[in-house]
Structure formats: C-alpha cells, structure tokens
Model the fold of this input.
Amino acid sequence: MRPSSNPVPLRRAARILAVLGALPLRFVGRLLVSEEPLDADARSRVWGGLLAASLESLGATFVKFGQILGARPDLIPAGWVGPLTRLQDHVTPAPFASIERVLAEELGPEGVARFASIEPVPVAAASVAQVHAAWLEDGTKVAVKVQRPEAPAQIEADLRVLRLVVGWIDRVPSMRLLSLPGAVEAFGAALHAQLDFGREADNNRRLAHNFRRERKVRLPGLHPSLCSARVLVMDFVEGVKATAPEHVGAHRSALAELGGRAILKMVFEDGFVHADLHPGNILLGADGTLTFLDLGLVAEIPDDMRRPWIDTFAALARQDGPAAARLFYEHAPTVGTDDYEEYERDVVAFLGTLWGVRLGDVEVGTVVAGMMNVLRRHRVQIEPVFTVVNVALLVAEGLGKQLDPQIDLVALAGPYLLGAALTAPPGRAPRRRAGRRTQHSV
Done:
C-alpha cells in the first residue's frame, strides 16, 4: 500500500500530537498520586491503560489501531496488552438518512424495495460499518451491514496522520523496537480489506464451507442478490454475545468444548483463521450453537510455515527447551539479540517452569505471555500470522474457562496437533542458523 500524496489534515494532526504528547506527563502524574511505589509490571500496566484511554479519545480509527497493536504481544510490553485488547469501538452511528443513501446507491430501487422495513437505530456501530435489523418482504429477519459513507475518506485522512505521528516517534531509538511504521502499514492494509465487503462475503463462505460438517458451528447465511461492495445482507442470528457467557444457560460446558474445538480446527486443521476474533464476534445460541460473526479480517497460515510451527509445538511437548529456542530464533522475521547463548538460557529457564505441571493446570495465556516476554526482551520477533493464531488460542481458552473452568484446552489440542503433524508439508528453509554471537538488525 503506497502512502497517499494528499496533505496531512493539520488540525487533526495537532490534536493527535497533543493527546499522545501528553502521555508522559499523565504517566508522571499517575506515579505521583500512587500511594506506594509501583514495580515495573505495574508501571507497564499504567502506561498501557493511559495509551488505551488516549487512543479511545481520538476516535474509531485509533481505537482499531490500538486493538491491532494489542494483538502483537511479541512487539509491545506485557502490561500494554490487556488495556489495548480490551478496547472496543464506541462509535456514534451515522445518520440513518446517509445509510439509506448508501443502500439506494448499492442496491438500486428494486433491491431497496425488497425490504419490508429497516430499523433506523443500528444494533451495532463500528468505524467502518454499522448493522441494522431489517425484515424482507417474505418476513425473513436479516442483518444489514452497511459501510459508513464517510469511512473511506476518514480512514485515508487518519492514516496520513498516523504515518506522520509514528514517523516522529520512530526517531526515538528506544521506540524503534516497536516497529510502529510497519504496524501502521499493516493496519492500513487491514482497514482497506475491511472496506471490501465482497472479500468479507468470500471469507464467510469459505469458513462456512470449512465447518459444513460441524452442525453446531455456524456462519450467518448470506443473501447474495442483496450483497455488494458496501452492503452485506445476512440472516439475523439470535444469541448471546460471548462477552456475556453467564447468560447462556444450560449449555455452558458443551459450548466451552465446542468453541475450543472450533478455534483449534481453524488453527491446526484448516490454516484459515478468523483474524478479528474476540468475544464480541462470537454468538452463543440457546440451542447450544456457536456462530462466528464479522469475517472482514482473516489470516491464512502458509503451507511452508505450518511445519516449523508444528515442530515448535512438538519441541514444547517433548520438553525440549533448546530445540524450541532454536526454532523460534531460526524462523523469526527479525532478530536483534547479540548473544544467542543468553537468549537460549532464558527460553529454557522459562519453559523449565512449566515442565512437570499437570496439563490441565497449564494455561495457554500464561505460556504465551511468558514466552512473548522472553522473545521481546531479546528482540526476537515471530511471524505476524502467528500472533493472530496466539490471539485465537487465547480467546478459545478465555471463553472456555468462563463457560467451564475445568476445560483443558491443551488436551483438546492433542488430536488436532497430531493430525497437523501427519499432513503438514515440509517447512521453508531456516533464514539463519543459531550462532554464538549472531546479530541482526530490527
């Protein structure tokens, strides 16, 4: 994606710089009012909370940026992850009259006439689109997802500002490790992908095909003749969002296992993963069904990366710390450590705290967070697609334990890992070999 040649909106840029520039002062103020000294972890959480609040105050595009940045635990401090991943879009809906104009432009008079009624107040509103409940002429209740008319221009303007802001931030040596310019470009590509509803419809169909034999895992059915690049019309799915699993009722344990298996299937069996997977995009049905929503973003695990990833899991299962350290290192896109032996010792020491722990007591979240801390400390990144995988596994575990505290995601993963190990093609050649004092720029 090439940067736009359009000028940066100066008033908007000034506000963003003012909000983000005030972060250090706000951090110092928080330290001064603290009743007792904060340790490093607590200070990191304070920074994360202040950053999340600042991004939220800057509006929808920056909230989405925070969500995507929060999905890169290999790049950001551990204390930032929680506040950023908890960010949700709080966007004022576009006026219904502007939504009606988009429907008329996309569907024409004949298409619009097929709606018996449309609720003017949306059931959900985000930065790119909003969803309205509607009824077709035959009485079918549908969900109408309509792109906000101002979304493309607003995204372009905010991306220009973001490029300017992170360009200045990246001049600070200690901030270069965050790779913010690259994150902005990836963010821009993700937002542009979300503007293409035709791509989302294709993703929906593909995931529905992958789960065609899973009777209780569903995707909303599309109404193709009423879908376009800016409008999606889908069956309206009734259910409880996974943000409130306490309202599910009698199917808690079954839904916990169903959700875990569904996400493990995406990750290990299909290599096609919902990349915006959070509890708000999972509906739990009163009949024990699970529905995935919002397929605007997906991640596909390349065939040549499946084998190294599976080999890494196998090394962890064998309790072979040095092999796991070597695999993380050899297949990292960038490495900045100047002492491989120290890096390996830290990986082995962390993994050693897990050996001998009963599988049911091992939490994926704890393992991922601890491993990301070690990798980040030694500036060893991981393939971006696997951060999506990590988030998916964390969602599976988090949802599962809310529904059934006894669920063992590690045990559920066993058959999927075995199947993947038997079918995965040979992996790509390592980019580097581990040496005693090997250094690579970040």
About this structure: The first strand starts at residue 115 and ends at 118.
